[in-house]
Q: What sequence folds into this?
C-alpha cells in the first residue's frame, strides 16, 4: 500500500487535471479545423489589339414607318387558315364543301341573339356569329368562321379564307 496517499489532496489534483484536459480539448478542437486562407488572384481579361480602338461611328438611319390608323385595320387583312397544312383539303378546288362529320340541326333566337345548333365530329353544341373553328369552338372545322346566322330561313353562312358556304336546314 502507498504510504504517501492523502485522500483529500490527491483527489483535488485529479479533478484539476481532468478539468484541464477537458477544457483543453474543447479549446483546441476548433483550432484544428481552422480553414486555411486561400489567396486567389483575379486578373483582368486581355483584350486583343484589334478591339482596343473604339468602333466606327454608326450612321443614323431614319425609320420611315407608316402609322396604323387603327389596330382593326391591320387585323382585317389577316386570313385565318389551316393550322396543319398537311391535312387533306376539306373543299374542292373552286367550291367549299360541307364536311361529312358536320350537321346543322337548327336555329334558336334567344334574347335577340341568334344561335345555331350543330353537330361536328361527335360533339354537339351551339355556335354564334364570329366563332372561329379551332379557336372559339370545336364544332366547326379549324379556321372556318361563322359569318352569319339567319333565323327566318334557317341558314348559317360559314367562311374559310376567301370562300363562303351557305348551309340550309
A:
Amino acid at each position: 500500500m502507498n504510504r504517501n496517499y492523502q485522500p483529500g489532496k490527491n483527489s483535488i489534483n485529479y479533478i484539476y487535471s481532468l478539468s484541464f484536459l477537458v477544457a483543453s480539448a474543447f479549446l483546441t478542437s476548433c483550432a484544428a479545423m481552422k480553414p486555411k486562407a486561400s489567396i486567389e488572384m483575379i486578373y483582368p481579361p486581355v483584350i486583343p489589339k484589334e478591339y482596343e480602338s473604339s468602333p466606327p461611328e454608326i450612321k443614323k438611319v431614319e425609320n420611315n414607318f407608316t402609322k396604323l390608323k387603327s389596330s382593326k385595320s391591320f387585323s382585317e387583312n389577316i386570313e385565318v387558315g389551316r393550322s396543319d397544312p398537311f391535312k387533306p383539303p376539306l373543299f374542292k378546288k373552286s367550291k367549299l364543301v360541307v364536311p361529312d362529320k358536320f350537321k346543322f340541326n337548327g336555329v334558336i333566337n334567344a334574347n335577340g341573339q341568334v344561335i345555331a345548333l350543330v353537330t361536328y365530329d361527335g360533339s354537339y353544341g351551339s355556335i354564334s356569329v364570329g366563332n372561329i373553328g379551332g379557336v372559339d369552338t370545336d364544332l366547326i372545322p379549324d379556321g372556318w368562321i361563322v359569318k352569319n346566322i339567319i333565323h327566318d330561313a334557317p341558314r348559317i353562312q360559314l367562311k374559310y379564307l376567301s370562300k363562303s358556304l351557305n348551309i340550309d336546314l
